[in-house]
Write a structure and sequence with these properties.
Elements (H helix, E strand, L loop, with lengths): L5 E4 L7 E4 L5 E5 L1 H12 L4 H10 L13
Antiparallel strand pairs: 1-2, 2-3
Length: 70
C-alpha cells in the first residue's frame, strides 16, 4: 500500500481521475487538475494560523462526497 494519497484514471482516455487514500478509500473524483489541487491541499502541512482559523470557517462533515457525479 502507498503512504500518501494516489491518483488513478477512471476512464480509458484519462479524462476522469480518482484520488484514493492509503487504504484505497475514494477521497474525490474529477479531472486531473482537480485531483492534483485536492492532493496539494490535503498534503500541505497546516500552519498555526491555518489550524486556528480553520475550525471557525469550516464545519467538518463525517462523509464527504465528490462534487461531480460520474
Amino acid at each position: 500500500m502507498c503512504t500518501i494519497p494516489m491518483m488513478f484514471p477512471l476512464d480509458f482516455h484519462g479524462k476522469i481521475y480518482v484520488l484514493q487514500d492509503e487504504k484505497g478509500n475514494t477521497i474525490g473524483t474529477g479531472t486531473r487538475q482537480v485531483c492534483l489541487e485536492l492532493l496539494q491541499i490535503i498534503t500541505k502541512p497546516l500552519t498555526p494560523l491555518d489550524s486556528d482559523s480553520l475550525g471557525m470557517l469550516v464545519s467538518q462533515a463525517p462523509n464527504v462526497r465528490a462534487a461531480m457525479a460520474i
